[in-house]
Amino acid sequence: MTVPMEIDLRILQEIQEYDKEIYLLQETLAEIPSELAEITHQVEAGRNRLKGLQEEFKNAQLKQKQKEGELATKEENVRKYETQLTQVKTNKEYASLQGEITSLKADNSLLEEAIINLIDQVEAVQKQVEEQKKKLEMGEAALKQKKQELEAKSNEIRQKVDSLAKQKKEKIKEVNPEIASLYERIVEKKRGVALVKVEGEVCPACQIQLRPQVVNEIKMKEAIIICDNCSRILYSE
Ligand SMILES: [Zn+2]
User: Rounded to the nearest whole angstrom, what is the distance from the C-alpha of residue 205 to the centroid of ligand 1?
Assistant: First the structure.
């Protein structure tokens, strides 16, 4: 005498293997966008850093030009006063102009020092800009490559899932339609695992202790036995 559920349960085991793989592949597929987002974010951060450095470079250059302009004006004043010096009539005027010139020259030597520091700063930031540009180019190239890789990987996974789904669809036709639709509902709800093999007295999926009567019913294979706790289909060899 054939046990009514035995054949269906055996086919369901095969189908369950397809579903396990399908769900696993779909999970991998679902992780791809976040993997890509992370790398994109890193490149974006690099781009912002470059922008910041370029801004810093422009500001330092601007400051340098301002100081150079200031120095040029003051040097011009020194020359003007020095010319006036040859034309003054009184000692007092002479001393006053001389004082002005000395003070301007002191200012100018401070300005010169500041300009030298700014030139160093401009050069240092320029070097950083160049380095960051290179880094960004590398990051962008890596991102492009990764995108292509992940796209190829996605396509491959999708093809595999399609092929597995087709095989499963064919196979499930061999199962009693009511049982098949029950299985499909559970597999969807339980994200890929609808059928579990009981070896002792607990449900291997949720670890709940099964009643002796349930364990016996599973062994008899006369009906589909569902775990009271996790609602998966239970079977035994
Ligand atoms: Zn369970």
Answer: 5
